[in-house]
Amino acid sequence: AQTVTQSQPEMSVQEAETVTLSCTYDTSESDYYLFWYKQPPSRQMILVIRQEAYKQQNATENRFSVNFQKAAKSFSLKISDSQLGDAAMYFCAYRSPPEQGAQKLVFGQGTRLTINP
Amino acid sequence: DTGVSQDPRHKITKRGQNVTFRCDPISEHNRLYWYRQTLGQGPEFLTYFQNEAQLEKSRLLSDRFSAERPKGSFSTLEIQRTEQGDSAMYLCASSLGGTAGDEQYFGPGTRLTVT
Questions:
Q1: What pLDDT digit, counting tens, does each position of A39-91 carry?
Q2: Reduced to 3 states, what is the DSSP secondary structure of residue A89?
Q3: How far apart (Å, rounded) are the C-alpha atoms in residues B35 and B105?
Q4: Mind listing the pLDDT tens digit for each residue in B60-70?
Q5: Nearest-CA neighbor of B60 among B48, B70, B72, B52?
Q6: Residue B33 CB: number of other CB atoms within 10 A?
Q7: Which residue of A1, A2, B9, B49 is most buried, as measured by CB atoms within 10 A?
Q8: Are strands B105-106 and B88-95 parallel, antiparallel or unpaired?
C-alpha cells in the first residue's frame, strides 16, 4: 500500500519570504499522480498543484512550484512571496494511475503553515 | 455551479444513535468520494462511487457504515450505533472522471461529535 509522509507538523515564514514544505512517499508503482492541497481554517480543501510522475518537468502554478525527485520519492512544495492568505494546512497526496482502478487519494498528515506579517 | 455541498455542517449525537449525512456533488461530476478526517490528521478514504455504483470501499468502512448514491447524483453516508471514535470531519469530494488527472473537488465537510 502507498504511504505519504509529511515530517513537518508546523512551519512558519515571514510575509513575502519563500518557504518549502516537504513530502515523501512510498510506492512500488512507476506511474502515479502527486498533489498538494490547501485547507484554510474552517474552509474547504482546494487543489494547489498537481504533478504526473511520468513528467520530468516540475509543475508550477504562479507562486507555487514543486521539486519532484522520483528516485528519492520526494515531492516538496515551494511557496514564493508568501502572503497572509497562504496560511493553512497543506496536505500532500498520492493517487495511483487510472488503469489500476483505484481513484482514492492517500494523504499525508499535513503541515500547518503560519505567515508572520 | 456552487461547488460540492454537504449537509449538515455540524452534528452532535449521543452514542448509539444513528446519523445520516448528505453530499451534493458538482452537477456534471460522475465520481463521488467520502473521506474521514480526524483532528490533526490528513483525510482517510472511505468509499467511492462512479455514477450509482459503489466501486471501492475502505476497510475503515465497518458494517455500521453504509453509503448510497441512488440516482448517481447526491450521496448519503449513514452511521449506525455511533461510537465516540466516530467523531471526525466527514468530507465529500466529486470529480468529472474520464481524465487522467481528474481533480477532486471537496465540500466543506460535516463535523460529527459523538457524546
A1: 998 889 999 999 999 888 999 999 999 999 999 999 999 999 999 999 999 99
A2: strand
A3: 12
A4: 888 999 999 99
A5: B48
A6: 26
A7: B49
A8: antiparallel
